[in-house]
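Troubleshooting log. The previous structure file for this entry was overwritten by mistake, so regenerating from the original sequence record. Sequence copied from the archived sheet and checked twice against the printout by T.R.
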Amino acid sequence: MVCLSNDPVIHLERGGLIRLDDGVGSSVACIEGAVWITQDYDRRDIVLTAGETYVVECPGLTVVCAIAGPAALTIGQPVVAEASLAEALKQRAA
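Regenerated output below.
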């Protein structure tokens, strides 16, 4: 289970970058503008516009870049919580 914290708003000018090292489970929420997200081991390009959110899926480096002008975003860092009920039952059965 992953719980996301609420971090302050980050403002980027066009072309500004944020690097997330090993950010699996982190949530990137675009508040204003548009951002492009690329991840190690992932061929996809993720583009978010205002109101959209993406959860980082791949280990390694993730880069978030403001495109087409300034952007505002938040990055919620993953917080490890207790295992879900299903996971706990599975472990007990093993």
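Helices lie at 85-93. Archived copy saved in two places this time.
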